[in-house]
Design goal:
Layout lengths: L3 E6 L2 E7 L15 E6 L6 E9 H10 L4 H25 L12 H9 L23 H4 L17 H4 L2 H9 L4 H8 L9 E4 L2 H5 L18 E5 L2 H14 L7 E3 L11 H14 L4 E6 L1 E2 H11 L7 E5 L9 E5 L2 E5 L5 E2 L16 E7 L4 E6 L2 H10 L13 H31 L1
Parallel strand pairs: 6-7, 6-8, 8-10, 11-14
Antiparallel strand pairs: 1-2, 1-5, 3-4, 4-5, 9-13, 11-12, 14-15
Helix pairs in contact: 1-7, 2-13, 9-13, 10-11
Length: 433
């Protein structure tokens, strides 16, 4: 019989191999997701190691691996193109005409997938039932671009008989990459608590693999180097990610030097990216500029360079909170909009926890930006307060992370766009073959 190892969500088997480790799914998990997984009936349950995590924690990892809705649509369009060609080829040699129904649109397929509840599906082949439960009927199957009529024509059984509810759901998802299928299932909030399981224990016990072949984590090529204007910016981003979205923290790497940070200032960061371009360094890089006068100008200049597809340049976002901010300059105190003028990363922290009013002081005129540059007074104190915050209420009370979360979202989005473009490029190359 052999031993099967598979990647499952609920009752749906997404991909499998027999007597062999097959695809390495370690990128979906972190080390703490390794658990003893119980199988069998209650009276004869056995436990062996595997990885298990909720779709809620896996979904953001899928995005950073490039399995986005945009990629899902590209995969489906490629499947339609292939399905149409297959039908045309068949019509040239098959004397028996076949009436093909119109294929589902991508939106129709997504709607059907969103209705699937993997944790509630039956695995029983209830062929004796007059109306067996199915996610996809045979009529629906024929509207999917990956339907193969020879799989069923001339067989001694009907397709509806050999399918259980869970395997019919698997057929609906079967034309997508398994990770893309997971991402589509994540569109339904009801599915986010469902477990994604990679159970390798039986394969190890059967002698077909070693336990150390199954490690959680990412290859270097899947990670992103985050480069900022200064070491404090990198520390703040790293801490924010560890607090807000620890499930993806291992995707990011930083230039982390306590002394002699080599890229301090907007000019040096721009030169750093120029150096990467000249060397054609094949890694994923995201350069993050501040939302101040010099940062905005340098960001625009850097974006105009001949960037590789694996390089992205972004700046911290404009926020409503910064439209009316206390400032001080040669003409005295005033309330001003500091977006694009003075919003360094420290401004995105909770500025209410230290007992003094947050204040921007205007400095010199930036010729590149065409306006004055400002900076937050006492910014080191705000940074130290944030880096000491452990994610729970402390002696200074709660912490408002809304602004720094908005900054993290910009950085993550830039990383996702790199991974998404890489995945779509792979699909495009396949279609050209």
């Amino acid at each position: 019989m052999g031993t099967i190892i598979s990647l499952d969500i609920g009752a749906i088997e997404l991909t499998w191999s027999k007597n062999h480790p097959g695809i390495d799914h370690g990128s979906l998990y972190q080390s703490q997701d390794r658990k003893a997984i119980r199988t069998g009936s209650r009276s004869r349950a056995q436990a062996s190691p595997g990885y298990r995590a909720s779709l809620l924690s896996v979904a953001p990892r899928l995005e950073l691996m490039g399995h986005t809705l945009v990629r899902a649509k590209a995969e489906y369009e490629a499947a339609i193109a292939f399905g149409i060609q297959e039908r045309r080829d068949r019509a040239e040699w098959d004397p028996e005409p076949i009436e093909w129904p119109e294929m589902f649109t991508f939106e129709e397929v997504c709607h059907r997938i969103a209705a699937v509840r993997p944790q509630k599906l039956s695995t029983a082949i209830d062929d004796e039932q007059q109306e067996p439960r199915r996610i996809v009927t045979e009529a629906d199957m024929r509207r999917l671009p990956w339907y193969e009529i020879d799989t069923y024509r001339g067989q001694s059984f009907e397709a509806d008989i050999v399918f259980s509810e869970s395997t019919s759901a698997g057929y609906l998802l079967g034309g997508f990459d398994p990770y893309t299928a997971l991402r589509l299932l994540a569109e339904a909030p009801e599915n986010l608590e469902c477990d994604v399981t990679w159970h390798f224990g039986p394969l190890v016990e059967g002698g077909y693999a070693e336990a150390d072949e199954f490690e959680a984590g990412l290859p270097d090529a899947a990670t992103f180097l985050i480069v900022t204007e200064g070491s404090s910016d990198a520390k703040i981003l790293r801490h924010a990610i560890s607090l807000y979205c620890p499930e993806i923290s291992d995707f990011f790497r930083y230039v982390d030097m306590e002394e002699g940070y080599p890229f301090s200032g907007t000019g040096n960061l721009q030169k750093f990216i120029q150096g990467f371009i000249a060397l054609r360094t094949p890694i994923n890089v995201v350069a993050v500029f501040d939302n101040d006068a010099e940062g905005v100008a340098a960001c625009l200049k850097t974006q105009q360079l001949g960037l590789r597809d694996s390089y992205k340049v972004c700046r911290l976002p404009d926020l409503v909170d910064f439209e009316h901010f206390a400032t001080r300059g040669p003409t005295g105190d005033a309330v001003a909009n500091i977006n694009g003028r003075a919003a360094a990363i420290e401004c995105y922290l909770d500025l209410t926890r230290i007992r003094r009013p947050a204040l921007i002081e205007w400095g010199g005129f930036s010729r590149d930006a065409g306006q004055y540059q400002g900076s937050l007074l006492g910014k080191t104190a705000y940074m130290e307060d944030f880096l000491s915050f452990k994610g729970r209420k402390d002696r200074r009370g709660k912490y408002d992370m809304s602004k720094i979360i908005a900054a993290v979202a910009v950085v993550v989005s830039a990383c996702v766009s790199i991974a998404e473009a890489r995945g779509i490029a792979v699909i495009a190359r396949r279609r050209r073959r």
